[in-house]
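Ops channel
N.P.: pipeline sanity check, posting one input/output pair.
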């Protein structure tokens, strides 16, 4: 009988410990929707963890000077209103997909941009007004099967 008490105690402690570890992981290591931009495709939803650029200084700096972006990561530029937007790749060391998103959370343009080593750098302009711009690693859109007119779910607190 004593062996069953020991086994039951061990299983109970193990279950409690596993639960604590699980919730710790969810709280501190899982990206939350507040930081994720979700691209909705026909078959699935694909997310990328975003850094934010909300001010003119952050817009100008963007991803310049970095060696890489990291898998499944990106930068979301948030503008106060819809407008035709233009970007360039000065001092960005790796190719990017630039995804222009309108106020209704629809992709209105998508361009793969190459690093610019010498000036003048090409300027990448949206075909339609956009309020948000996501920069992710090049070919992210193609690999994940989303494109122009597809819906996105903006991270919590970013919609105007």
């Amino acid at each position: 009988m004593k062996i069953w008490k020991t086994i039951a105690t061990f299983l109970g402690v193990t279950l409690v410990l596993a639960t604590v570890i699980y919730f710790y992981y969810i709280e501190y290591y899982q990206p939350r929707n507040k930081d994720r931009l979700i691209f909705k495709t026909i078959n699935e939803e694909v997310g990328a963890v975003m850094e934010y650029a909300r001010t003119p200084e952050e817009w100008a700096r963007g991803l310049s000077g970095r060696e890489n972006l990291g898998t499944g990561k990106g930068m979301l530029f948030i503008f106060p209103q819809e407008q035709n937007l233009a970007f360039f790749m000065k001092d960005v060391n790796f190719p990017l997909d630039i995804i222009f998103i309108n106020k209704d959370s629809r992709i209105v343009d998508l361009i793969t941009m190459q690093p610019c080593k010498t000036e003048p750098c090409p300027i990448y302009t949206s075909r339609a007004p956009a309020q948000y711009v996501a920069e992710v690693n090049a070919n992210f859109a193609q690999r994940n099967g989303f494109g122009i007119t597809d819906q996105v779910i903006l991270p919590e607190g970013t919609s105007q």
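N.P.: looks fine end to end. The chain has two domains: 1-30, 33-153.
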